[in-house]
Design brief:
The longest helix is centred in the N-terminal third of the chain and has 21 residues, at 23-43. β2 (48-51), α2 (64-75) and β3 (80-83) form a beta-alpha-beta unit. The protein has helices at residues 23-43, 64-75, 96-105, 148-151, 186-190, 280-288, 307-311, 313-321, 340-346, 352-358, 364-379; strands at residues 2-7, 48-51, 80-83, 112-114, 121-125, 128-135, 161-167, 196-200, 215-216, 220-221, 238-247, 250-259, 264-273, 295-305, 326-336. The protein contains eleven helices and 15 strands. The chain is of the alpha/beta class and 380 residues long.
Amino acid sequence: MLKIFVTGDNHIGKKYDRYPDVREKLIQSRFESMRAMVRQAEQEGCGLFAVTGDLFDNISTVKAGDVKQAAEILAEFSGTVLVLPGNHDYYTGDERVWKEFEKALQGHAHNVVLLNVFREYSFEIGDERVVIYPAFCHAKHSGENNLAWIRETEIPKDDAFHIGLAHGAIKGITPDRKEEYFLMTEKELRDIPVDIWLMGHTHIPYPDLEENEDRTGHKIFNPGTHEQTDLHNNTEGCCFVISLEKSDGKTIVSAHKFISGRVRYYDLALDIRAAKKDSLQKKLENATAGLRPNAIVRVKITGTAKQDEYDERARIYQTALGRFLTYETDDYELSPEITVERIRSEFSELGFAAQFMERFLDEPTELQMAYELIRQCRDE
């Protein structure tokens, strides 16, 4: 049997300029999650540790110390580590990040292999022979994938495990409208007679595996990022543990996920209706009640709030969201409730505008529209 720990899209070197107050915490969390992955791989008895591309966020500005730290973490794994260049950390031979990576490994006894040549890589892992077929990235963008050389290779049906590693978009799974990210199709991958594909690029895990229960029936595995990178990626951050076993000439594949992410990003939408007796503070507290505190939270708030809550909304945000690493609120579309008192304070109660709006007091949506229209006309 062969067990493989699979991760990808780690984006070490991400700067987090958007969050200056917690930047260092976010940077270090990515390293802490990597250490946890290596420990988990050891506990699971994995012989291979595969990184399916984008270990680094880019090829030129990642700090040498960050490259060194990532290399040293991977070198701690007792088995074989495979590192595939992705489209963010692509390989042509001149990239500073890979020169720093190889330099960092020189002082360590290690089994870290950079898959930077389009050829077969053969390994003895325990009692098993494993053949790796890499489709790494040579540029950030490409209208063609790098599967051609594997497709043209005669892959024998023998006792070895034949494993493909590729980085790029998967049609129908990964957003790639311009088809510029080494796009592949599932059929294209399945038609190549390897036992499994270990993929990178898509930050959302595919397939959707359970944490404590092995699932069978899959050939293509994309673990997603080991820790969320931003608000656009609403996942927990995970990796896959895959087991392969030969039985009667067939390869039996089973897999489960390991939740490795420590920091979460939550992007929420909240609609408040004062006419329905909604409380801004209570709705905000309820919406975030189950969220872990080690998180970045953004909340878009729309609708109408009671005047007193609207005036105190900055304090309410701090009370409800202050426990998180940091938070953002977008309340541009939140307005104070339109009441008779407010109408009469802004407009003459005997005037047409006030009398017109008071007709809609039982219809808050129409009242809000009437108020905005009249205020716009007055301001012009």
